[in-house]
Amino acid sequence: MNKLYLWGIIITAAMLGFTYYTIVLTKGGMNGDIVNMLALAGAVALVIITVFVVIKYVRQMQTDTASGELADETWDGIGEYKNELPMGWAVMFLALMVWAMWYYIIGYPVNAYSQIGEYNEDTAAHNAKFQEKYLSITGDKLVEMGESVFLADCKACHGIAADGIEGRAANLNKRLEAKTVKYVIENGSNNHLLGSEMPMPDRNGLFNTKTGALLTDAEIDAVASYVADGMSGAGANVFASTCASCHGEDGKGMEGVAPNIVEFTPTLVTNVLNHGKKGAIGGMPSFNGLNAKQKEAVGAYITSLSSTK
Amino acid sequence: MFHWLEKHPFFFAVGVFLVIAFAGLITVLPNFAQSSRPLIGAAPYSTLELAGRHLYIKNSCNACHSQLIRPFKSETDRYGHYSLSGEYAYDRPFLWGSKRTGPDLMRVGNYRTTDWHENHMKAPADVVPGSIMPAYTWMFTKLADIDTAYAEQVTVANIFSVPYNKPVPMRDGSTKIVKMGSSVEDANAMALAEAKVIAADMKDQDVKDAIAAGKIPEIVALIAYMNSLK
Amino acid sequence: MENRPLEYDYTVAKLFMFMTIVLGVVGMLIGVILAFELAFPGLNTMLGSGVAEYTSFGRLRPLHTDSIIFGFVLSGIFTSWYYIGQRVLKVSMSESKFLMFIGKLHFGLYAVGVVAIVASLLLGYTTSKEYAEFEWPIDIVVVLIWVLFGISIFGLIGIRREKSLYISIWYFIANFLGVAMLYVFNNMEIPTYFASGGHGDILHSVSMYAGTNDAMVQWWYGHNAVAFVLTVPIIAIMYYFLPKESGQAIYSYKLSLLSFWGLMFVYLWAGGHHLIYSTVPDWVQSMGSVFSVVLILPSWGSAINMLLTMKGEWQQVAASPLIKFMILASTFYMFSTLEGPIQAIKSVNAIAHFTDWIVGHVHDGALGWVGFVVIAAIYHMAPRVFKREIYSKSLMSTQFWIQTLGIVLYFTSMWIAGITQGMMWRAHDEFGNLAYSFIDTVTVLHPYYAIRGVGGLLYLVGFLMFAYNIYKTMSARPVEEYELQNASPMGA
Ligand code: HEM
Ligand code: HEM
Ligand SMILES: [Ca+2]
Ligand SMILES: [Ca+2]
Ligand SMILES: [Cu+2]
């Protein structure tokens, strides 16, 4: 065997090796995706065809000799043979021209293909496949699914550890920071946390039933740390006499009245995802692109973050 | 025939020109009118947004970011509804890009917020560990060029009948009017009013001070543009 | 036939040759900087945060593409024109004062354009359209430069002694006409300062086309800019220097003929492959795909013609680094003109588009084909223009291998990076959710970006060796008495 062919095989094998490595690197590999397969087939064909066609011509440089009838003209000493077209080339060119004509006139005449149609089919197939699968996803599996949603969609703001990246977004390992509670009391809140419009009044609407007066700054600080510390500490009184009427004695909220401020619940998270949120930290966009199951799952995941600790 | 052409440069050139010229006409023209039609819900850019768009172009954000969501499940999951031709009717130039070193931004206004952009533009890797996007710190001090944005609004309103100060139909059946100033001063005042709303959600003290002094830092215009991408 | 030996006048060719080398260094240096900025983003502020605006990736990227394509490559084309044109038409520039003046003016205006472009891009004046970033005043300069180039081409043809046009001239004519047509239509823009009655920045303009139409026109331009700047004139150069350097006759006139007219006809239809799965009509996209595949043949036709011209001449390839440059260039031309069509197939484009695989494709062509041909051309011209032998053949040979290694590192790393990223973007996990957030698909590329940077650096190092070699050629060796014939004589 000629040395060149050996080189050709080495180069091809190396490129194929790299390409294979690429797939191994990708989670799920080919993922059963026809597009992946075609792209790789194209990549493989590219190397093999180029390498071996070029070798064919290099062999001719090594073994053949130039011949043919020269044209009359020379330009600055450059001559020109009147050789015939290389057969393979000419046939391929003609065949591809015919194929192109066929493609446009018979195969796929104008507007015979629609990329949106293709999209609709793919999406329907995807949805059908997971519709079924979703039924069996519950419990730990649901939390796992939620983590996958979180890592794809939420970590850009909340960080990979869901800690809010030093206060840039909410720390989801903990229901509430004192700063947020204080902000809510001072400014009220209207984030559809219950799923519909149900605002919480600001400090001008919050009476301490024990003192019969509006909350003082000291009381606000106390109750804020009380809530943030997981319902413990000095603010217990204020909470009981001001907040409990809506958020319940234990702070776990009341259906349709006020949300749970002790722990995350999947419903609360779903509501945040449906409506977004704006508060002391900043703005949280709504995520209506997620489907109901994905919202439920990420809700379960976030709930699990603080409850297991 | 070819040999003859090779001896007659003029006809040779004409031949080449004919062979190369008509393909363009056949691919560009047939759908030209249809492709210029705006989709219901598409509205022109406000002065501040347009100034932001100029900054996006000035810094070649389009070198790394596309604004074209292809109709694949993976893309619509990641970025939202696939792009439709009529959504781009007011985009001069188009900014689809050809390389996604960073993510698509066609609908980034849906899933990122003012304060996030503020943090991100200042130090991308602090927000997104491993990010290779450059920081744009100078945008927090340099001032946006509102005059040029206004000049462009006037130009496109006059020449291409872009509907400024006119009701454009929205998807929910309502209409929206995007205002254009009646003079440069007016345009600057309108842009400042818009900028105030955005700066209210920001934390950078220099930006807040500038706005209070009636100046608009580049970053505010850029964020206005980012937020308008929906 | 004339027998009197002609004294060709290479004044203008020389000027453009310096420009080619200078802008090649600039463009490639910026390319290397960009490559390392992606691998190590801290470099975006390498000169301190005070001037970060001018060193950040976004500002520099158009400067790389434009200084390389319209600086290095175009200068190389002009150099070759002012050299080849006289010789294959058998007239000297010195025979026409007018054409000599036009040539010098061409260079002068071009130099002005270069300065204006570098300054304006650094300051952020760009219209964002790829390879057509320049604002309107520069467009006007570009048009003037192009008109002068046209006058030079047709002027020289007008006074030629050689009745029949050599193949290279066909391609130069096509280069001129194609770019003229494309550039004008893609740069239809309205200066807003004048249209608004004197507001804002005087350099700013707004495109005449919007949205999808703008994209159509841009990629009709963009694709064919590749055709008529990075392909057509490079073929012109190749058709002259390979037979000239090797002393071989062109393998087949018929093959030249069909490849030329085939390329002219097919190229223009393929622009749709930049817009696959976009919002342009489906039929335009399909047209782009189908014609891209057809395009393989006229492209390969020229490359095959080159390879077959060297039939039986392996000893020349083995002995001469200059011929090695050209043979490997033909090979890379074949590689990128097969890679392009494969990437133009819809399903492959679904993965490849927007990824580094495209950047890999670009540089297979740019480094392997365009860069090598321009380098080879100058290596052939320099001894004749300066009437001195090439300073060092061994340096040239080392350069060849260093640059080849650079290209291999560049395209293998981008190949892997692109396919990896394309597949990761598409992946859904077992729950039907996206498997990766965007940043996961960025961090995974780090090693490949670093390898590409090294590859690019090697290419740049090779280019600096080239610049040094040419510099020494100009200044170090004694003057040759007579004009050199085939096969560049080279020092040890
Ligand atoms: C048969 C010939 C060729 C075909 C069919 C072809 C096809 C393609 C395709 C499909 C793309 C990618 C479009 C995308 O998805 O973004 C592309 C990009 C590109 N190709 Fe080629 N290619 C060919 C030859 C070449 C050659 C010889 C060069 C010379 C350097 C070249 C330079 C480029 C450049 C610069 C781009 C990038 C354009 C951009 O900025 O997006 N191509 N080509
Ligand atoms: C030292 C050698 C070079 C290096 C290191 C280099 C590096 C780069 C880098 C890093 C990019 C940006 C890719 C991205 O956005 O991800 C780029 C783009 C580009 N370069 Fe180079 N380059 C080099 C030489 C060249 C040459 C010689 C040419 C042309 C003849 C060229 C033409 C281009 C083009 C057309 C693009 C735009 C590609 C696109 O938009 O798809 N480069 N280069
Ligand atoms: Ca590009
Ligand atoms: Ca322009
Ligand atoms: Cu193309």
Describe the structure.
The complex is a heterotrimer of chains A (309), B (230) and C (492). By secondary structure, chain A is mainly α. Chain A folds into two domains: 3-62, no CATH class; 132-307, no CATH class. Chain A is built from eleven helices and four strands; from the N terminus they run αααααααββαααββα. In chain A, helix 5 packs across helix 11 (292-307), helix 8 crosses helix 9 and helix 10 packs across helix 11 (292-307). The longest helix of chain A has 30 residues, at 34-63. By secondary structure, chain B is mainly alpha-helical. Chain B has a two-stranded antiparallel ribbon. In chain B, a hairpin with a 5-residue loop joins strand 1 (167-169) and strand 2 (175-177). In chain B, helix 4 (47-58) packs across helix 9 (146-159) and helix 10 packs antiparallel against helix 11. Helices cover 72% and strands 1% of the residues of chain C. Chain C has a two-stranded antiparallel ribbon. The chains are: A mainly alpha (309), B mainly alpha (230), C mainly alpha (492). One protoporphyrin IX containing FE (HEM) sits between chains C (28, 31-32, 34-35, 61, 64-65, 68-69, 73, 130, 358-359, 362-363, 366-367, 370-371, 456, 459-460) and B (63, 98-99, 101).
Structural class of chain B: mainly alpha
Radius of gyration of chain A: 34 Å
What is the CA-based Rg of chain B, rounded? Answer: 22 Å
CATH topology of the largest domain in chain B: Cytochrome Bc1 Complex, Chain D, domain 2
Report the end-to-end length of chain A measured between terminal Cα atoms: 68 Å
The fraction of residues in strands of chain A falls at under 5%
The helix-and-strand class of chain A reads: mainly alpha
Dominant shape of chain A? elongated
Beta-strand content of chain B: under 5%
What strand line-up does the widest sheet of chain B have?
A: 1-2
How are helices and strands ordered from N to C of chain B?
A: HHHHHHHHHEEHHH
How far apart the termini of chain B lie comes to 57 Å
Helical content of chain B stands at 40-55%
Give a short account of the largest sheet of chain A.
2 strands, antiparallel
